[in-house]
Amino acid sequence: MKIIPVILGIAGVIGGGSFYLMNNPETFKGFFSRKTIKEEESYSRAKKNGKVIAQFIYKDDYFGSSSEVTGTLKAKCEYWTELNKESRKVMSESECQELIEELPEIKNGNKPIRFLKFDERGNFAIPKEYFYFLREDEDYLLSMLRGEQISEGPWTCSSKQKIDSKELIIKCEKNQN
Fold first, then answer.
1. For the residues of 67-122, what is the DSSP string, one character each?
2. Closest CA to 75 of 84, 66, 88, 83
3. In terms of pTM, does the model score above 0.85?
4. Could you tell me the residue ranges of all domains in the chain?
5. 57 falls in which pLDDT band (50, 70, 90)?
6. Which residues pair with 156 in a beta bridge?
7. How crowded is the C-beta side of 158, counted as CA atoms within 13 Å?
């Protein structure tokens, strides 16, 4: 008999809590959200604050064309603010287009490319995330970083280091058959 009030009390707490959460969906979303309290930054804000350590652009017909009339290839852009994979973020289409316009290496091209620009903080970890053949053989990466051209599948890749900074660029172009 003494257990019945305990059960009714627990049921009341659960029922009341459920009623509250159902009537306040913002609380419910926040409770189960995987996001950290740290506010997500946009690419432009991260760049302005000097937090961007890598930028990646992938432009290929794999994504389809953004315009059937012009045949312009769609691009996917990502940026990193830290070395862990969780810091990799996808840019909005407008931010991606702005980045492409800023880069003379790819600005005027409509060819399929894979382009990675990273600073020394990106060491070898970031290139291996985008160029899978670099995961297998450390010599490939070292050869590429010395400026040698490497062909892998339909892609021909080369690199260069900007003289005025500590940025490295790896650019791969798809061989057109």
1. -TTT-PBPEEEEEESSSSGGG-EEPPHHHHHHHHHH-TTTTT--S-EEEEEEEGGG
2. 66
3. no
4. 3-32, 43-174
5. very high
6. 151, 173
7. 6
